Amino acid sequence: MPDLFKEILPSLLLNDDYQMNSEEDVKSLSPYIINKALSSNFDTVLYANEMNRRPLLDKKLQYDYLFFSIRKYKRKYQKWVKYNESKDIEIIKEYFNYTTKKAEDVYGLLTKEDLKYIENVLNKGGKIK
After folding, report:
1. Greatest C-alpha distance within the chain
2. Which residue, among 68, 67, 2, 65, has the nearest Cα to 29 in the 3D structure?
3. Residues 63, 9: one domain?
4. Is the Cβ–Cβ distance between 12 and 34 less than 8 Å?
5. Which of 28, 40, 58, 93 has the fewest beta carbons under 10 Å from its own?
């Protein structure tokens, strides 16, 4: 059973080493993770989008399409985008009753003193985590 990040993705992006040799290999394939990894590169994002448009396609057919259509060369791997909501955004959301988007917009306008003041106003007491 091939490893996703050490064997399958490099076979799609770097070399011509075909990895889907058995039925177990096909079952271990995760199209969601592969499409997420491919969407971080500007030249493979359209291929990932094509597979996202056809989610009911067989896993082996998805792998074959990506394997035979993506040009093989070394790419820089981008960091995976992770949503990380800070404590300050949570404080702004609660104090002003804003949405996350609106709180992120306002965050740049507030100083550290403003954030400390808001945090003190919202302090409900109890144990500190």
Report:
1. 62
2. 2
3. yes
4. yes
5. 58
Task: For residue 79, tell me if it sits in a domain.
Answer: no
Clarify whether residues 19 and 54 are in a common domain: yes
Q: Is the dihedral of CA 113, 118, 120, 126 positive or negative?
A: negative
Domain extent, residue 94, equals 87-122
Q: What is the pLDDT of residues 44-85, one digit of tens each?
A: 999 999 999 999 999 999 999 999 999 998 887 666 666 556
Q: Do 44 and 91 lie in a common domain?
A: no
3-state secondary structure at position 89? helix
Reported confidence tier of residue 20, pLDDT bands at 50, 70, 90: confident
The total of structural domains in the chain comes to 2
Question: Residue 30 and residue 36: Cα distance in Å, rounded?
Answer: 10
